[in-house]
Amino acid sequence: MTLFHPEESTLIHFLKTYQPTPPSASSDLEERIMTAIDDSETVLAELNQSHRTSKHYLRSLRIAIALTAGLLTAWIGYGVYRPNQLSLREQQQLEDFIVSNWDEVMTGMSETEWLEVQESWAE
Amino acid sequence: MLTDERSDSDLVRQCQSGDRACFRHLYQRYQLRVRSTLYQLCGGISIDDLVQEVFLRVWKGLPKLRQPETFSTWLYRIAWNVAADERRNFAKQRASSSSLEKAASVVDNPMTSINLATNLVNLHYQDIVERGLAQLSFEHRTVLVLHDLEDISQKEVADIIGVPVGTVKSRLFHGRAAMRKFLEHQGVNL
Q1: Which of A33, A36, B17, B22 is least buried, going by the fewest C-beta atoms within 10 A?
Q2: pLDDT tens for each residue of B129-138
Q3: How buried is residue B172: exposed, middle or buried, by Cβ count under 10 Å (0-12/13-18/19+)?
Q4: Site from B62, B129, B150, B154 to mutate, A interface, most A CB atoms within 10 angstroms
């Protein structure tokens, strides 16, 4: 509780007694306020609904973008890292090389010769 | 008029869960005080709209009110914000039309007309107090209205307008001094 100086008490009492009285509220003010609250709630609900819809739309869009990006990356990656296909001529050359190499190994040195080489090495 | 014995906190909590009937109780509990405060701070121009604006802001802000027991302080802060906005928006308009509005409101208001007929002295003093408040700066008027007329403690006033208690005391001192000087100038010696 605030204690006032007597002079202040007199002033405050005078102000309280003769403070201007506000004009009465219009009879429908309370209903107007409640209606405005209802309206604002409706607008808010609509906003929330549209917000939810746009959130759902955004989520779908993000998933679609991610899928597209993934597929695109896989496709590009496959193109970049796929081993080059040999042409028929190159395949033929490779085959010839392997066969001739194999023949050299098989015909140039028998199994016993090989063992001999190993023994001489061991010595 | 509805009556409700529940505390502000209980009503606020009910409102926060969407109970509009409880909000009606809060409105009825506080509308006169809010109306009076707004009237002392802004005058009678579109007072109904200002009251509506305050209670709309209250309804919208209620879900964010963490401490329901501070409801009245919070409500007055909203009222003060609305008054400050109104003052900023219409400062020039009010300066030019306040005397006309005042004259019109005296004629239009039947209660005031009755008072005019029955008690001229009261009306004269009311007019002086109204002019006295009007000549104060908005800051001084605010603390005088909230503390001296609405009986809100200095601490609460400080919370409402967001200044230290010392500033409230200082503004109160200067506001009262200016008001006393004005009254003396008008021939009212207290």
Answers
A1: B17
A2: 999 999 999 9
A3: buried
A4: B129
A-chain CB neighbours of B47 within 8 Å are 22-23, 25
Q: In this structure, how many other beta carbons lie within 10 angstroms of the beta carbon of residue A48?
A: 10
pTM of the model: 0.64
Cβ neighbours, 10 Å, residue A11: 21
Give the ranges where chain A is alpha helix by DSSP (H): 6-17, 29-81, 88-108, 111-122
Q: Which residue shows structure tokens 């209980």?
A: B10
The predicted structure's pLDDT at residue B81: 93
- Using a CB-CB cut-off of 8 Å, the residues of chain B touching A47 are none
Helix pair B165-185, B120-135: axis angle to 10 deg: 130
**What CA–CA distances, in Å, run from A90 to A10, A85, A97?**
115, 10, 10
List the structure tokens of B17: 């869960």
The tokens for A96 are: 């010839």
Contacts of B129 in chain A (CB under 8 A): 14-15, 18-20
Residue B29: band (very low, low, confident or very high) from pLDDT cuts 50, 70, 90: very high
CA distance B67 to chain A (A): 22
Q: Which two tokens stand for residue B184?
A: 């003396």
| Alpha-carbon separation of residue A25 from A1, A21, B3, B48, B51 (angstroms) | 32, 12, 19, 6, 9
Cβ separation of A37 and B59 shorter than 8 Å?
Answer: yes
Which residue in B129, B154, B180 is closest to A19 by CB distance?
B129
